[in-house]
Amino acid sequence: MQVAITSDIHNNLANLKKVLDYCADKKIRLMVCCGDLASLETLDFLNDNFSGEIFYCFGNMDDGQMKMRIFKNPSSLLPLKKGERIISPLRKGGLKEDFKNIQQSHALGRYKNTLVFKNHGETKIDEKSIAFVHYPDDAKELAESGKYDFVFYGHTHKPWEEEIGKCKILNPGNIANEIYPPTFAIWNTEDDKFKLVRVNELLQSPLLKKPACRQAGGIKGNL
Asked: What angle do CA 74, 154, 127 make, to 5 degrees?
């Protein structure tokens, strides 16, 4: 199974569309987003343009309208049922990825096809325990707990990976194109290898009407 690891979109819908087109082309049906979508509009755009399941935790840029609108309007989140099978096996178009081993915990609820987590999320994918959070200090603490095989985080905008004990900790970089060039990561759960995808090297979809928010330079990070 391939899983897209993303973070720090900051309302850059042009770059986000590139990421989603890449996922569609590669038949990627699962995404982990480590925060900073920055608006409910971007969350809606993500859900409307990604056909799979999304695991999403809040970041500091989501503290405004995103949290306020979701928390003040609990009906916007569909409740989780006890023992709910979060992700079902996919068979559309001949794709035979098996999601039967994916579990979840600590979710606030479901918004469209997104499972929403307040501070950090944790789940199991192919019998591997993962956690995802926005802040690097929290990610380090989660990794040091010894509970997880992988911990994903964002906030710094810089692609990064390191080992803490038996846990791999990874930052996919940012999609916003701020401070560092935009990147995201693809995790192959069969061999646990990660690929860093550089968004500026992907073709722009002609379907998107909104331009990117802004452009910024930086140093390329490596995984």
From this structure: 80
